[in-house]
Write a structure and sequence with these properties.
This protein is mostly helical. It is built from 32 helices and nine strands. The strands form three sheets. Strands 1-7-8-2-9 form a five-stranded mixed β-sheet. It has a two-stranded antiparallel sheet with strand order 3-4. Strand 5 and strand 6 form a beta hairpin. Helix 8 packs antiparallel against helix 9, helix 14 runs parallel beside helix 18 and helix 26 runs parallel beside helix 28. The longest helix has 51 residues. It starts with 5 loop residues before the first helix and ends with a helix.
């Protein structure tokens, strides 16, 4: 070799020497690939923007301390408040035990495959949602930005719910519980019960008036609720401390926040099963109504619940899996987390209906006592004859069975005038059929049931501490869906950006702690995420299965996992899941069009809820939320389609530094010099998702590191590149 050759210059100098691939192949000796690392990178500018150390960022990426910590993080993110107060309601509403059948079917054909897909791409590419989808399909790179926006919308109101739980948690340290009795108002020497409370109930009054101090409609702001503002500040402080150091801090928090809810649920289940009437609630819950299985609405709601229960599309799943080692068995993780999520939902359902069965018996006995007093009044005023009362009935120890018998006799005899008597049948089934979900379950029905528990403050503290931990686990994943892709892409300081996010979210979140804030929570919960997330997930599925290629992706998984995933996933990703998601998206759009958006308002004067439609300005805000969340997808597509935004492709060059070869091929055509370095024909080029390839963001270097093993995936291609005589 000539002494003045570029290779000789390289060996005696630490400076970068850049030259064309053709020169390298024609003039240089073979590279000792066993002593070198080959990095393939693309840059819009055609120049090296990052140092070698930055290009190997994937190797220095933070990692979970243990597999258990990672699994707990995924469980903490996927198992949230919806498992406690949404799944039991849907189960009751849609056929009891029969609802479990469509839910399980959809979990298998939609939930697990798409959850596995997100875990796999995050672990393979080792970047947040922005980097992952830019890598898989640059034109659909807007998916990652949309995920971040949806996470922001959800985080804004989700932390408000944690704030509500914090308020109830601190109020639980007193006996009797403050929501166990209606407050008494003194008017001079006269003491009367608060009218709003007397018309409703003690727990309902405490929730709407003491906690929220709610206004009559969304149009009446009413100013800030200072108690909830303070609780929101505490909630964001807790979340900020949990995520400020990334997985180093959040991973440790997960040991408690993910496991503690199961301890509480187990305690509540044991306590609940010992309550009188618990079996009635559980039997009512799991008595299947098989006709419901044929209702399309049941399947739509089951699909939506599967979709949200696993946290698909938020970016949190991808963010957490991106901190895994390349050979981690994410297939096992997907199945494990999915079924733990399902098991948690069933466990929560048992707990909820054991407690609600107890509450139903209490309320039914109360109904019997109230109506028995009415009957005694009618007997004393001769409105009813004493002959109508069965001789064995004892009003001082009246059972539900005796009351039902007496009620039926009176209804038969007084058929024409029965309605004027105002008697209630007091059926246990009617109490059990009263569907409650969301805040109505947690802050009204469940709190009312706990007032009848022995040592009620203890159980109240445990319950709301469980809600705080469930919310915290989900919030950590939601924040990871925002911070991880932004930090990966734009290289902003982690701590500064995380603190800035929390401060910004707190001030925007003041919208939800004004007196009308609960109505905005309803708006964001019902509309800001549902449609955008279905669009995001169906495009994720299409990007991998139809654009990147299912066969190619399966091959990547085989190399990453060490075994080939079941053929089942091929058909799910390719055909079944996209079709199901398309149907769900269409159904969601139709539902929005058919049912005018509205909310349940609490009317103080009536002490009752009334369903109101959103005013025009609120409708405009609702539409803006949906548009803003989905807008990055078409914007990025258009910009990259018309080359207004560089996607980093076809911009490579080659340079050397002390035994490390970094290749930057500038503006090469597909059939040009690439064929000499990779293969004889473009179709034989290796898959574009190599081991350790890491995406650093738009306009930055995306390195690919390959060991010198000639039997590896790129071994033969690089061996040919280092011995050009065999090709030429």
């Amino acid at each position: 070799m000539p002494k003045n050759s570029k290779v000789t210059q390289r060996e005696h100098s630490s400076e970068h020497v850049t030259e064309s691939v053709a020169d390298l192949l024609a003039l240089e000796e073979p590279v000792d690939y066993k002593q070198s690392v080959l990095n393939v990178a693309g840059e819009a500018s055609g120049k090296q923007k990052a140092s070698a150390e930055e290009e190997l960022d994937a190797e220095d990426r933070p990692a979970w301390n243990s597999k258990l910590q990672y699994i707990l993080a995924q469980i903490g993110f996927s198992v949230g408040l919806g498992n406690i107060w949404r799944f039991p309601y849907l189960c009751q509403k849609n056929g009891g035990g029969a609802y479990l059948v469509p839910y399980l079917v959809l979990l298998i054909i939609i939930g697990i495959p798409l959850f596995f897909l997100e875990l796999a791409v995050g672990q393979r590419i080792r970047r947040g949602s922005i980097g992952v989808w830019h890598y898989v399909c640059p034109r659909l790179g807007g998916i990652g930005f949309s995920s971040c926006i949806v996470c922001l919308f959800v985080g804004l109101y989700y932390n408000v719910i944690i704030g509500w739980s914090i308020f109830y948690f601190f109020k639980s340290f007193q006996y009797p519980l403050p929501w166990s009795e209606c407050p008494v108002v003194r008017n001079g020497t006269v003491a009367v019960v608060e009218a709003e409370c007397e018309k409703s109930s003690a727990t309902t009054y405490f929730w709407y008036r003491e906690a929220l101090d709610i206004s009559n409609s969304i149009s009446e702001s009413g100013g800030l609720n200072w108690k909830m503002t303070l609780c929101l500040l505490v909630a964001w402080s807790i979340v900020g401390m949990a995520v400020v150091k990334g997985i180093q801090s959040s991973g440790k928090v997960m040991y408690f926040s993910s496991l503690f809810p199961y301890v509480v649920l187990a305690c509540f289940l044991v306590r609940g099963l010992l309550l009188r009437g618990a079996v009635d609630g559980i039997l009512h819950m799991f008595t299947p109504k098989l006709d419901k299985m044929l209702d399309p609405q049941v399947w739509r709601e089951a699909a939506t619940q599967v979709f949200f229960a696993l946290g698909l599309g938020f970016g949190g799943v991808i963010a957490f899996s991106s901190y895994n080692k390349q050979d981690n068995n994410c297939h096992f993780d997907a199945a494990l987390v999915s079924f733990i999520n399902f098991f948690t939902s069933v466990l929560a359902t048992l707990v909820v209906f054991a407690v609600l069965g107890f509450k139903a018996n209490i309320m039914n006995e109360k109904c019997v006592v109230e109506n028995a007093e009415k009957i005694l009044g009618y007997l004393n005023t001769n409105v009813l004859s004493r002959d109508l009362i069965p001789p064995h009935v004892n009003f001082s120890h009246l059972t539900t069975k005796d009351y039902t018998e007496m009620y039926n006799v009176i209804m038969t005899v007084k058929e024409d005038k029965f309605s004027a008597l105002g008697l209630n049948p007091c059926l246990l089934e009617d109490e059990l059929d009263k569907s409650v979900q969301g805040t109505g379950l947690a802050f009204i029905a469940f709190t009312e049931a706990m007032t009848h528990f022995p040592a009620s403050p203890f159980w109240s503290v445990m319950f709301f501490l469980m809600l705080i931990n469930l919310g915290l686990g989900s919030m950590i994943g939601t924040m990871a869906g925002i911070t991880t892709p932004i930090i990966d892409t734009f290289k902003v300081p982690k701590e500064m950006f995380t603190v800035g996010c929390c401060v910004f979210a707190f001030f925007v979140g003041l919208l939800f702690v004004q007196r009308s804030g609960n109505y905005f929570v309803t708006m964001f919960d019902d509309y800001s995420a549902t449609l955008p997330l279905t669009v995001i997930v169906i495009l994720e599925n299409i990007a991998v299965a139809w654009i990147y290629g299912t066969k190619k992706f399966m091959q990547e998984l085989t190399e990453m996992l060490g075994f080939r995933p079941y053929r089942f996933y091929y058909y799910m990703w390719k055909f079944v899941s996209p079709l199901c998601m398309a149907v769900l998206t269409t159904a969601s759009i139709i539902q929005l069009g058919v049912t005018p958006p509205g909310y349940s308002a609490w009317i103080k004067e009536e002490a009752a809820e009334r369903y109101l439609y959103f005013p025009s300005w609120a409708m405009a805000l609702l539409i803006i939320l949906i548009v803003v969340a989905t807008l990055p997808i078409p914007v990025v597509f258009i910009l990259r389609h018309f080359h207004l935004l560089c996607d980093g492709s076809n911009t490579l060059s080659v340079s050397y530094k002390k035994g490390r070869m970094m290749k930057d091929i500038s503006n090469l055509e597909e059939n040009d010099e690439t064929r000499f370095i990779l293969s004889k024909v473009p179709s034989e080029a290796p898959s574009p998702m190599p081991t350790h390839r890491s995406y650093l963001g738009p306009g930055s270097t995306s390195p690919l590191e390959t060991s010198g093993n000639p039997n590896g995936r790129y071994g033969s291609g690089y061996l040919l590149a280092s011995t050009p005589e065999s090709e030429l």
